[in-house]
């Protein structure tokens, strides 16, 4: 099951987030694992713009894994990744090592927060 809420927001303004897009583009060896629910208001608010940023950064579909959770926040990978709040985005190397994790309560939009954290690790 895929996340409808991760479909790119067609009105998202790439130019306003060019730094984030450039950073996501530069990290072309990462996998994005996204947990959410189409029923979740935070997911509906945050994930369409993340989807647009990943699309703008030309992240291929095979490096984006979507995990749709039910209203009890149950589903694939929840226990393994200790998912408590959604949306949650776990960014890993292709070897499966966690690099960073966005959880719903961060103070920046997901794409901006992820890019900021990736830049800080350089």
UniProtKB/TrEMBL annotation:
Pfam families: Thioredoxin (PF00085)
A molecular function GO annotation: isomerase activity
InterPro entries xref list: Thioredoxin-like_sf, Thioredoxin_domain
Keywords: Isomerase
Domain Thioredoxin: 14-104
Protein name: Thiol-disulfide isomerase or thioredoxin
